[in-house]
Amino acid sequence: MEVKRSSRTKTAASVIIPFVLLAVMIGYVFGPGSELISFGVVIPEISIEKVEFVDSEIIATVRNTGPIAVDVVMADINDRIYPAAIEPDKHLERFESAIVRIPFEWNEGEPYAVGLTIDDGTRFEKQVDVAAPSIQPTVEMITYFAIIGTYVGIIPVMIGLLWFPFIS
Fold first, then answer.
1. Does 112 lie in the same domain as 53?
2. Burial zone of 17 (CB within 10 Å; 0-12 exposed, 13-18 middle, 19+ buried)
3. Domain annotation covers residue 18
4. Which domain holds residue 7?
5. Most exposed: 71, 131, 154, 166, by fewest CB within 10 Å?
6. For residue range 124-164, what is the model confidence (pLDDT) as tens digits?
7. Do 77 and 112 contact (CB within 8 A), yes or no?
8. 65 and 106 fall within a common domain
9. d(Cα 38, Cα 61) in Å, to the nearest integer?
10. Is the separation of the CB atoms in 82 and 104 below 8 Å?
11. Model pTM score
12. What is the DSSP code (8-state) at residue 137?
């Protein structure tokens, strides 16, 4: 009988003690220990994911990858400020994307640095080593891809299906 009581006591203690310790730690962190936890200054972060060169315009796709909302206030190319249109708007919540359209007469083959400045003055930059026009999809291009897909994918499978009875 004595063994059963001590076994039950140990089991109850091993179940209750972790919950009590967890409650004490949570109480300390949200109570007097909250002054010891300092997360520091929140630093904004945006990433310029894609830069496209189209006729007389540079289009940059940006995403707010930081923990706080930011406003894109200025765009520059090679450290020269240019007017820019930001779609849908200049305010970016966390993980929100926008398209920045910068009217600029660019030259093919030259390097460019596309920079964006946010409301607190932090500047982010994307370096493009060689500017090249972005490929725009056309009916002719889709036709070529369809022909290549037929030659590479459909015809070999059909030949394999025709040979299958002879192989097995």
1. yes
2. exposed
3. yes
4. 2-35
5. 166
6. 999 999 999 988 889 999 999 999 999 999 999 999 999 88
7. yes
8. yes
9. 34
10. yes
11. 0.65
12. P
